[in-house]
Structures are given as C-alpha cells and as structure tokens.
Amino acid sequence: TAFFHGDLDEEVFMKLPPGFHAPEKGMVCRLKKSLYGLKQSPRCWFSKFAKALFDYGFVQCGADHSLFSLITRKKELHVLIYVDDML
C-alpha cells in the first residue's frame, strides 16, 4: 500500500476500470495519486518519503540513496528503505 501515498508530478490517464460505465464513450480517468503497477509509483512514493525525512533533518547517503542518516550530539539514527520495484 506504500505506492498509494505517492503524489504524481505529471498528468497520467488510464482506461476506466472494468465494471465502470462512463456517460460518454472514450472517457478516461485522470490519476491524482499513484497506483501499484504504475511505472511512476515507486519514484513518486520515494520522493515524498525522502522529502519528509529531509524535513526532519536527515541527510541522504551519496553512496546508497536508500540510506538516510540523522546524527546529533547524543543520538544517531539510520534509516535504510527499500520498496519492492523501486530500484
């Protein structure tokens, strides 16, 4: 369900789901959030997640972009994130 929380940066359209009948022929759906199976989903979700960590003061590792670190005087916190289909 992680991919359902990603925001799309571009306009993406899809055919209507099975069982849904449009009032006019040829209508499509415009997506505002990412869906599982959409090629942009992992990137959209990771971008939103990374922004949240940056807002808390985390720094992204240059050697491994899925590793984020927050180091203070008293504490050290490392988050290594991997979502299926992301990399």
Give structural notes.
- With 87 residues, this protein is α+β, with helices and mostly antiparallel strands.
- It has one domain.
- 17% of the residues lie in helices and 29% in strands.
- The chain has 1 helix and 5 strands.
- A 3-stranded antiparallel beta sheet has the order 3-4-5, covered by helices on one side. Strands 1-2 form a two-stranded antiparallel ribbon.
- The radius of gyration is 18 Å and the shape is rod-shaped.
- The mean pLDDT is 80.
- Keywords: Nucleotidyltransferase, RNA-directed DNA polymerase, Transferase.
- Pfam families: RVT_2 (PF07727).
- This is Reverse transcriptase.
- Residues 1-87 form the Reverse transcriptase Ty1/copia-type domain.
- GO terms for molecular function: RNA-directed DNA polymerase activity.
Quick summary:
The protein has one helix spanning 41-55, and strands at 7-14, 29-33, 59-60, 67-71, 76-80.
